[in-house]
Amino acid sequence: MQCQFGNTYTAMQFQDDLKIYFTEYMGYLFLNISNGNIEGFIEKCVVFARYVCGPDIYQLHIEDSKADLLCSLLDQWLELHSHSQSVYVEAIEQLVVNTQQDCSKVHALLLVEDKLLSLYSSVNASQLSSVDTLFSIILTQTKEKTETITSRQILLAGSDDDPKCIPHVVHIIHLVENVFLLYIFELGYTAVSATLYENFYHLHALQQVQIQRDKDTIQLAFENLELAVKRLNDNVKKIRNTSIETYHKQLMKQWDIIKGKYKDYLKTTQNDAILRAETLLHSYLGDLKEFYNLVSGSDSLMGTTKNYVINIIPKLKADLIIFTNFFQVKGVKNFELGSRNSLTINKYMEDFPGLVHFIYIDRNTHRMTAPTLDMNAEKADFMRKKIWNMMSFAHTHLRQGHTSIIWRDMTFSYGYFLWFENQGGSPIKIPTNSTAIVFRTPGILDNDYFLKLKKTLLPKSSPTKIKCYELFCVHLGLTTPAGLLDQARKLAATVWELKGFPTHAIDFL
């Protein structure tokens, strides 16, 4: 619709609050019909579909297992979105422990419920990004709590700014009550899979714009696709696999013909040339999907790695059994402001009078530190609604360009602060007339909102040299704005004493 009619709308509202949301991904239209108000749900549908199917969404139609997995992921996201602080703000809550052990080889994650206790990666493995870690946490919640290993082939986004579809196999093990261990192995050829995804992206972009028959727009889209094909060729040349090389040569013969047709059109702007190119491009897309499956899949590696995991489970359970009680307590209660068992936490009761709750997020690693909400306590639902409303209110104003706000209701006073620092820890001032309203809901699943924020508000600085942090505070209603602001400054300066180092490594191998 956008190509043909210039329609940039993403939703329509009907009577009785019924709404239809729609978005496009890889040639498929995603629709969400609802009378609810879960912002960003349709974007999460696309994100999870990309993790499950990559660029080939048709797999949802022909493979029931992938369709079922997508439904389970969406169900778990909805559940966690309404009960988990970390999933709501799209950050990773790490349990507060003190351990620094050396580690080696493969991705391994130890989770206690929806909290990360430890992440371990080998020196040879690609970096596991924060968004992939968050997805893995949501994926884990789809597993039934049995001793059977659940194995899935998934497509991770990778650590680049733009998401890729990098094939991995994940084995999920339920160790003890609420404790899960994940092993994540790379599949196939990572560089080839990543550049193949770029080919799909630019191919679909070309298919969309050529409807308009605007020569300049088509030329730009064609040049982007041509560059992506060149990068794919360069990466395929680095591998030695007869079946891949043979299939790739056939693809390149097709591409040479398609390239000639587009160049004919760009010279003559005749409709016959573009029609022939469109027909050939559609056939090329189908073959490209087959090539992607050839490069990405590896049933033998899935079986080999699963056998390895099966063999080490008895030793793992024996080694971790002494920590069972610790895991179970941590899963329910990471730490509370009211706890008197820790001098560090007791400090917060004395130094921050009136502080009811806080959420601190390092938006460079997307790691979150926050007191646990006891959902079984009296008035738990009341507190949950207050905190969820606070997070929603704060992010709504962030999208309007407000990075610091203080407000109150009949019960509590609230504060939200987002700030930037340089590598030396000194604050960075941002323009007072800044606006970020053009972005989607703040988070990382469908796009790293905070990376875009850095690029928009501080365009002359490298995003890698800018640190970004968020702090949400809830105080008793009698707390003055000046008092809340003073405590927020102290809290931001001292929270590292509680959260410790950003990673805690444990060797699971």
Automatic annotation (TrEMBL):
Sections of the chain in a coiled coil: 215-242
Superkingdom to which the source organism belongs: Eukaryota
Domain (FUZ/MON1/HPS1 third Longin) ranges: 354-498
GO MF term list: guanyl-nucleotide exchange factor activity
Keyword Nucleus annotated: no
Keyword vocabulary terms for this entry: Coiled coil
CC terms in the record's Gene Ontology section: BLOC-3 complex
GO BP field: vesicle-mediated transport
Record-annotated FUZ/MON1/HPS1 second Longin domain positions: 103-190
Keyword Coiled coil carried by entry: yes
Protein name: Hermansky-Pudlak syndrome 1
Organism: Rhynchophorus ferrugineus
